[in-house]
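Re: that backbone. Tokens:
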């Protein structure tokens, strides 16, 4: 039976003005859900509802809010397999990866449940007698969270869990093509006891969401925007927030480099390249973009990677495969445009490109009737190539060559993204030189560009984001603001920097 889904505002179903069909990308003839899409006014109404609920939610003691987060974690854990199966059905992510994504939510809850007892402020010594200074973390208010669908449950949790813990309310707009997964996660959150209006779910297309966000910012009902998606849309969201003197949390695309040094363990480097380049069909913001390989090991690395890709299992995501279909038709169409960036001076070392069909087959393929595409490794990539400079969201990895480590670092920074990066080396000096020179927010040594842990800051710079960070204690700075308080109990007005006791030194003293 097809799921019928609509937005939920204040605990009640909200009206729709259009519909969207979420399909199973592994079998495009199967409908996962029919989704009612809201308009801009409905999005703005959700923000008003969240604002009205925020004051009471903030009054709930932080340790109690922490227990709600703990309950969310236990509920997700108890429903992990069902939620993971739904993720696999709706976006084609291999089940093992989907289960890992769900585990990420549990890990995030386990970290933040304790933050309810650790939202520390500080007492600060005053320069005057009989006066005390304090700092407090206070919630920002209403968070509007807009997420992509390649990680349909983990990434939203990175925003929502700390936002709710800190005493904010939220309006969450997930990707339409991952609506069923989002609706399921929403139900798990609310089952933990969240009052109506604290978390609101809005399904809408991009233009309606942007217009609704603009209206809400104008009305003053949103105090923090979290956005995960493309660099182009993130730039527009950032400009909109800037006009309202707000600093959004932007987690955008990546063109993530992997540097392979002459002393690298090539088998390990190939394993990392395969996972980060082709896991989730290359549709992660942290997916490997270009392997930058030293000229002395370039041929060996390329041959090994081509062999690994040739033997990688592609197909039905419920099975043991490296990757399944692309997320949705729109991504398949866009990926075919990226394939047009392959130029005559490039060499495709992995065989066929494009969609896997009977006329364009792949050995060992286990899928049927879905948005499945051949994995592609392109050798001979140059620094001015579009395929080197721009994100290619799909199963495509480029290989470039370098001579010196300084050249490798320069190449790694050239595209202007700055999310994730990695270096494979057995030389500590090379590892630290790379870390010092790379502009990415995240660096891996002898590990792939993909992979995050719930207690480590996640985020990028340059075209990958505005320097904001998710996960760990660092995300608290996104969802709280520092408030300072001074309490003068002297019974008289003491003026800072003016009524300060002076102790006079003898600066002319010499031994």
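Recovered sequence:
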């Amino acid at each position: 039976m097809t799921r019928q889904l609509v937005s939920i505002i204040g605990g009640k179903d909200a009206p729709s003005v259009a519909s969207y069909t979420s399909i199973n990308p592994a079998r495009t003839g199967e409908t996962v859900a029919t989704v009612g899409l809201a308009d801009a006014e409905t999005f703005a109404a959700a923000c008003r509802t969240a604002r009205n609920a925020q004051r009471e939610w903030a009054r709930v003691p932080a340790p109690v809010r922490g227990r709600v987060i703990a309950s969310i974690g236990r509920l997700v854990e108890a429903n992990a397999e069902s939620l993971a199966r739904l993720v696999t059905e709706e976006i084609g992510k291999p089940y093992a990866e989907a289960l890992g994504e769900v585990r990420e939510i549990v890990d995030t809850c386990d970290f933040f449940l304790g933050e309810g007892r650790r939202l520390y402020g500080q007492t600060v010594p005053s320069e005057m007698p009989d006066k005390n200074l304090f700092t407090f973390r206070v919630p920002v208010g209403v968070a509007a969270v807009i997420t992509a669908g390649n990680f349909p449950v983990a990434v939203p949790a990175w925003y929502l869990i700390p936002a709710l813990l800190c005493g904010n309310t939220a309006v969450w707009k997930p990707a339409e093509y991952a609506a069923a997964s989002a609706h399921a996660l929403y139900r798990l959150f609310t089952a933990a006891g969240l009052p109506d209006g604290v978390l609101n779910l809005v399904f809408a297309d991009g233009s309606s969401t942007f217009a609704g966000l603009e209206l809400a910012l104008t009305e003053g009902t949103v105090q923090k925007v979290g956005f995960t998606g493309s660099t182009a849309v993130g730039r527009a969201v950032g400009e909109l927030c800037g006009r309202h003197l707000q600093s959004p949390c932007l987690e955008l695309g990546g063109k993530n480099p992997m540097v392979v040094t002459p002393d690298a363990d090539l088998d390990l480097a190939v394993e990392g390249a395969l996972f980060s380049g082709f896991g989730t069909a290359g549709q992660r913001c942290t997916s490997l973009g270009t392997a930058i390989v030293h000229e002395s090991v370039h041929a060996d690395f390329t041959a090994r990677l081509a062999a690994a890709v040739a033997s990688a299992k592609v197909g039905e995501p419920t099975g043991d495969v490296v990757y399944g279909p692309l997320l949705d038709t729109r991504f398949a169409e866009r990926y075919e445009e990226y394939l047009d960036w392959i130029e005559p001076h490039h060499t495709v070392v992995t065989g066929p490109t494009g969609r896997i069909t009977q006329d364009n087959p792949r050995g060992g393929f286990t899928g049927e009737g879905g948005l499945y595409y051949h994995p592609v490794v392109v050798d001979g990539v140059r620094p001015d190539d579009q395929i080197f400079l721009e994100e290619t969201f799909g199963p495509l990895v480029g290989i470039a060559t370098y001579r010196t480590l300084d050249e490798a670092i320069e190449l790694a920074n050239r595209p202007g993204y700055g999310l994730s990066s990695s270096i494979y080396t057995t030389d500590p000096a090379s590892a630290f030189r790379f870390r010092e020179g790379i502009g990415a927010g995240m660096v891996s040594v002898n590990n792939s560009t993909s992979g995050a842990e719930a207690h480590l800051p996640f985020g990028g710079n340059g075209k990958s984001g505005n320097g904001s960070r998710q996960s760990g204690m660092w995300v608290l700075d996104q969802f709280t603001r520092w408030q300072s308080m001074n309490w003068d109990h002297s019974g008289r007005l003491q003026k800072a920097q003016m009524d300060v006791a002076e102790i006079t030194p003898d600066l002319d003293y010499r031994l």
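The mean pLDDT is 96. The two ends are 92 Å apart (CA to CA).
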